[in-house]
Amino acid sequence: MSSSPYGSWSSPFSAASVAASSPRIDGARFVGAEIWWGESVPAEKGRVTVRSSSGTEVLPAPWSARSRVHEYGGGAWTADGAGTLYFVDAADQRVHRMMTGAEPVPLTPAGPSHGGLRVQNGRLLAVREDLSTTPHTRAIVEIPTDGSAAEDASGIRVIAEGEGFFAHPALSPDGSRVAWVAWSRGRMPWETAHLQVAKSDGGGRSEVPTRAALQPEWLSDTELVYADDPDDRWGLHRVTLDGATPVGTPHAFAPSDADTGYGLWVLGNRWYRPLDDGRIVATRTNGRDEVVLISPDGAARPIDAPADGHVSIDDADGSRVLLSGNGSGVTAGLWSIDVDSGETVAVRGGEPVNAAWMPHALPIEVDGRHGIVHAFAYPPANPDATAPADELPPYVVLVHGGPTAHVTGAASAANAFFTSRGIGVLDVNYGGSTGYGRAYRERLDGQWGVVDVDDVVAAARGLADAGLADPDRIAIRGGSAGGWTVLSALVRGGTFAAGISRYGVADLRMLVAETHDFEASYIDGLVGPLPEYEHVYVERSPLTHADRIGVPVLLLQGGEDRVVPPSQSEAIRDALASRGVDHEYALYPAEGHGFRSAETIVDALERELTFLGRVFGFDPKL
Q1: Which phi-psi region, left, alpha or beta, contains residue 339 (left: φ > 0; alpha: ψ -120 to 50)?
Q2: pTM for the whole thing?
């Protein structure tokens, strides 16, 4: 086998194959004898369809199930056991009902957005957001399923309403009460979120003492279980109720040194599910995920689940559960698992990966300025290629968005697109990431643009100091908040030889002026409130110091992005152009915050590879 320079290896992972790879699952349900799941279709510009294990497409084109509540949506479809589909149409944000063999019909009037749909005991609950009012309002609502409120919102029962935010409505078994999570405009849900309970007609509201509550579920008519993190880790808690009033003090249930829960960005996440016999299937995250079965006495045992990253417990039926997520040894997918027999069926995706091409990511820890930094390393891997003995590989350091989010070291065709060509990937969970407890998450409080940059620099230097990466050929790549860290690291200089920013934040004041309601106060915690901290906003913004960027930069941007509008990337582009700094800019007019269409995914990946080859001096094979 002859050797070839890193970056120039031939690879079976084309950009088109990456775009068509692992399905993006968006919820799943047991529906009679079938299993239904939501799935994004890149070849149809990211349309979200609903499919069945029978082989049929339940929600045909041009319908698309996508919510815009809180901008990031989630919970845009659900179904009852008889096979009636309820979904939020991406085009008009109305809730629709689709019965077997029939066309969809609207259940809500035009105007407000809906998400977080849930059917229980034949009743349909949702989170509603109305941006036409001043101030904007949101609510937990019950929507008649007979279509009687399709033109007149007065027929929709409002259970709770206000200027704040709501998530995770859950109906009690007897149908008399509803529990949900709520938080105010001045906070993010992972900082402070309250568990509230009311009668299903909206009366008698009470609040359970919590810190950052997630996902309430009823164990009986008098007992609730929910996730909360009063002691650093999100874990399950129980509380007894008399009607809608808490009785006694909530108590932790099956605590562990791991998180059952993470940042509540979307409305459809489910980190656990109670079974009918009182047991609970739950995820526990400490970098990677573990799925456990918890007995009523709190004893827990691991479940042998293929997925170990961003696992969602989407539904339960008897002893069977539906799990979606990704894995370190399998592609992303959806599985049905019987927790008693251990029978595991891959419903969609979930194929074992070829370890010769996609070996398990290596969890690493490096000492950083603010403490331990967690990351996952993906070294170059290609069974048909070798590099010259005296050459070290180039690396791309990945910075996840959020920033209150995390990566799990999952097998990834997108990463293999680079590693199979001889380009290493280092995925960093910098301070501020979820999955390691509240203290690690709060490391970023007031320090965005400082701690995150220090941590990605420490991770990159640790790799180079260990002799695993060419210190002169390390690039940094990230999107959204990750793009902010990319640009901030390039401003600092000295570690990264190139940068790739996907819809990255460049100017904090511009971000605050243009951002949506959900994140309106996010920067208050990450940097500080305005106007007191305006000088910090100016000082930390990469645009302020764009004259310090002296390495090549690739900027990729969606034209319809309402979270980080094109003006941010274009301001950096113009600043680099004015100084003659090597840069490229690509605008995808129809894309929003995150690239969904296959055409865009292919073009962006090929641009990135070509850019790295030009900057680092290798000839990539597309």
Answers
A1: alpha
A2: 0.95
